[in-house]
């Protein structure tokens, strides 16, 4: 895949309430909660910039002023705010609202709390290199459920030998969990009406068409959803930094 075909725009989802992270989020939006001494959203934006993303659209709702003020110090990528102060639109509704800012080309969607410890090659570079809009409507980064920190669920997806994703049945356990990062073509939002809805709705359309693909994350994905999980993630990052020093 040539560099010219790689997406260069990202949507960073930062409008959630962070209720499971309380009491830390009583006065601080979750994207600004420190991890390894830096706001979680800065880990995300640094990775995006390093992978060649030049513009990041960031949606804001809860404690929006604090996020906007924090992001003013960013040099790269260029930050554009999608204002959701009036209504919480969920993941899909937030992306739909931001489409005029994102343009007509495929773009990255990145949760503001999706963090991991790399192992070798950049996972974002691998995702961007794997994108092929002739075969895909969306491409997900998937983490192995058995090798993820802070996650104890039953997984989200199965992945066949061609990289095509299917959902697990209700009674099953799946080997992969969504790592909070994907590439998507804006055409998947055609016909959607503005309002709150989940990205699962558009992903299910891609699954039905056989056009939802995935690659597996190399490294340690960390599900930083609670204060206890944050402590575990801080310890894991400190250990990793110690090994690389």
In short:
The protein is α/β, with parallel strands linked by helices. The protein has helices spanning 40-50, 64-71, 90-102, 123-130, 200-208, 227-244; strands at 9-13, 34-35, 38-39, 55-60, 78-83, 107-111, 114-118, 138-144, 148-149, 157-159, 165-167, 176-184, 212-216, 219-223.
Descriptive report:
By secondary structure, the chain is α/β, with parallel strands linked by helices. The chain has one domain (7-244): Spore Coat Polysaccharide Biosynthesis Protein SpsA, Chain A (Alpha-Beta Complex). The protein has helices at residues 40-50, 64-71, 90-102, 123-130, 200-208, 227-244; strands spanning 9-13, 34-35, 38-39, 55-60, 78-83, 107-111, 114-118, 138-144, 148-149, 157-159, 165-167, 176-184, 212-216, 219-223. The strands form 4 sheets. A 7-stranded mixed β-sheet has the order 5-4-1-6-12-8-13. The protein is globular, with a radius of gyration of 17 Å. The mean pLDDT is 92.
